[in-house]
Amino acid sequence: MAALDSKASGKMGMRAVVYYMTTTIIAVVIGIIIVIIIHPGKGTKENMHREGKIVQVTAADAFLDLIRNMFPPNLVEACFKQVNTRQLVIHL
């Protein structure tokens, strides 16, 4: 590539861009065709009953959980565990 002049280098670069765009378009078309054929998620139950209640989490709690999960005390345990903040409401 270093021995080529600028015209030949530009031609080779254009071929690389055209090749990349062509293969990307082919991959997208194949993906769309497969999705149309197999209809992923069609057989799932739409009215799933979920147990429990939705817990409201603030942005600060989510950010602190992220930082807490970044520095685990035990690396092996960190592969299998994730810490989440739990809020307890105490009525006095």
UniProtKB/TrEMBL annotation:
Keywords: Amino-acid transport, Cell membrane, Membrane, Metal-binding, Potassium, Sodium, Symport, Transmembrane, Transmembrane helix, Transport. It catalyses: K(+)(in) + L-glutamate(out) + 3 Na(+)(out) + H(+)(out) = K(+)(out) + L-glutamate(in) + 3 Na(+)(in) + H(+)(in); K(+)(in) + L-aspartate(out) + 3 Na(+)(out) + H(+)(out) = K(+)(out) + L-aspartate(in) + 3 Na(+)(in) + H(+)(in); D-aspartate(out) + K(+)(in) + 3 Na(+)(out) + H(+)(out) = D-aspartate(in) + K(+)(out) + 3 Na(+)(in) + H(+)(in). GO terms for biological process: D-aspartate import across plasma membrane; L-aspartate import across plasma membrane; L-glutamate import across plasma membrane. One of its GO terms (cellular component) is plasma membrane. GO terms for molecular function: glutamate:sodium symporter activity; L-glutamate transmembrane transporter activity; metal ion binding; neutral L-amino acid transmembrane transporter activity. The chain crosses the membrane at residues 17-38. InterPro entries: DAACS (IPR050746), Na-dicarboxylate_symporter (IPR001991), Na:dicarbo_symporter_sf (IPR036458). It is found in: Cell membrane; Membrane. It is a multi-pass membrane protein. Belongs to the dicarboxylate/amino acid:cation symporter (DAACS) (TC 2.A.23) family. This is Amino acid transporter. It comes from Camelus dromedarius.
